[in-house]
Design goal:
Chain B: Pfam families: ABC_tran. The complex is a heterodimer of chains A (401) and B (243). Chain A is α+β, with helices and mostly antiparallel strands. Chain A has 13 helices and 10 strands. Chain B has a domain of 166 residues: P-loop containing nucleotide triphosphate hydrolases (Rossmann fold), CATH 3.40.50. Chain B is built from 7 helices and 10 strands. Classes of the chains: A alpha+beta (401), B alpha/beta (243). The complex binds adenosine-5'-triphosphate and magnesium ion.
Chain lengths: 401, 243
Amino acid sequence: MFGTTLVLALRSIRRHLLRSFLTILGIVIGVGAVVTMVTLGKATTAAVQQQISALGTNVLQVRPGQGFGRGGGGPRPPEFDQADVEAIANQVAGVTAVAPQASTTATAIYEGANWSTSINGTTSAFLTVQPWPLSAGRYWTAAEQEAGKAVCLIGNTVRQNLYRGGDAVGTRMRLGNISCDVIGTLSKRGQGGFGDQDDVVVMPIKAVQRRFTGSRDIRLMLVGVDSAYSTDTVQAQIADLLRQRRRITDGKDDDFNIFDTAQIRDTLTGTTTLLTRIVAAVAGISLVVGGIGIMNIMLVSVTERTREIGIRLAIGAVAREVLLQFLVEAVALSCLGGIIGLILAQGVILALVPLMQVPWTFDPQINLIAFAISAVIGVVFGYFPARRAAALNPIDALRHE
Amino acid sequence: MTGTLMADPLIRLRDVTKVYGSGATQFQALKGVDLDIKAGDFVAVMGPSGSGKSTTMNILGCLDVPSAGEFLFRGHHIERLDRDQRALLRRRYLGFVFQGFNLLSRTSALENVELPLLYRGDDKRARREAAMGALEKVGLDRWWDHTPAELSGGQQQRVAIARAIVTSPDVLLADEPTGNLDSERSVEIMELLTDLNRTNGITVLMVTHEPDMAAFARTVVHFKDGLVERIEARHRQGQAVEA
Ligand SMILES: Nc1ncnc2c1ncn2[C@@H]1O[C@H](COP(=O)(O)OP(=O)(O)OP(=O)(O)O)[C@@H](O)[C@H]1O
Ligand SMILES: [Mg+2]
């Protein structure tokens, strides 16, 4: 009995190739879109989180000025200096290290190759606050740091562009107007929402101050916070200390800002999660559209189908048998479409992942949900018109216009 | 063929009525039809349009149910059967031929003829053999792989007849089988039905408007206004029939 039904269903699919193809197409598009979009959305979220965790957890960024992009109006607030760095490091409880930063840009030249990059002057505290392993070479010594020696660690992008991926440690390259010994290469961190993090040369801050910026100003302090302490408390204490040191009277606003990277992470994660949801909603709509497509095809063919059902009933088929045939047909088409959709989605994901620079992920849940929904749509719209037709008298089904 | 007493008719209708619709649009198509049909008979049903011929045929073919009255087939009360039982009855004992052929489109003649056997559960070989036999009977064995769109009207009707007789039914019901055909094709179909009646002993019931076609029958039943007006028993087939 079931074998017969399968034969009938497969014959029907073969005979109505266009109808079958359109049905499958609707499901393929629905499943493919949902799986692709949701998977890529999740991959993007994962990539952003990975980027942010590279900033280090429990890190406070302290800058002069009232906040990002708050320019103009009144005198420029003073920059920090080494004394501020030491005061925070020594006087605030829960601070593990304070890394000052002085940045500039310069062109690096090595054996005819040149590359414009950013220079980050800091101290070894930088590596305590934001651990960054070396792929080769060594960090600078305390003596080199004190003396402001022209030694540097280079990021992966700089290494790729100046050394074509070759050995850089031990060489001497030109950096702006000075020459500089490369003592180590930094491991790859990757691309992210903050641009290429590997496009950097890291040097002792004194070298940068003396030879590039020409001042002792510090534009940014990275403060590491012991995980046993609350970042809010530490942040408040730093603020108090800096107000005192900068002689800000009560009632006046801070002329510096303290930024919690955990806050950035939360914000960005929230944004990408929201984006994923929006994308999923769009994909869901395409699933619905695919479903409506299937429904239309089924409804258009309902007259033809009703007559066919009438013929089958008239020659002695029991309604149940006819229905089973249509059910098997709908299930077969839906499953076929679903599987093609899943495969297609994997293909598109594999093609897009390197372009979008996000990690490849496979989420069984979304695959399953998309498949199930589309299969249900296919079965419902393939089966229910048939059920209505099979409930008719054979003679009424035959007369159906 | 005739399992019961010879005196018992194969089919018996008693005071059968059929009401279409309900309320204000209600229409009584049959007003109390009494009719006996003997096994092996060749019956032509005639009458003006709207007199209830098709309605009666659909009831006899178990495609529709009477509103009231008795319908006995081989002494069994058919009006008491449910949908599925009627379907099984159609599958076993009845073959139906429609004016509009009603073949499955995009399906070869052979597969169309095979269809009733599929539902009966015959295996592939048996299906092929029986279907080819039926096609041979209607003279279309060479056309077995053609779809209805590739066949003429007369050929399509012959495929439909092959499909109706492939299960070796007791009764072949045909509602205006020649209604869509020219007179030459019509005569071919009538000769085919006569042959099935004579050599295979199939009881044939056929609706027609044309006296020329009715002339092939042994009994002519005249309908009028939802009732059997008169029954004409004929001594010799081929003898002229009045409309
Ligand atoms: N499904 C239906 N719903 C409502 N009325 C119907 C239906 N089928 C038939 N009738 C009515 O019942 C009456 C008898 O119809 P029937 O089809 O039996 O006539 P007929 O004798 O076969 O006529 P014709 O020679 O034109 O085929 C007609 O008046 C028709 O309008
Ligand atoms: Mg009629």
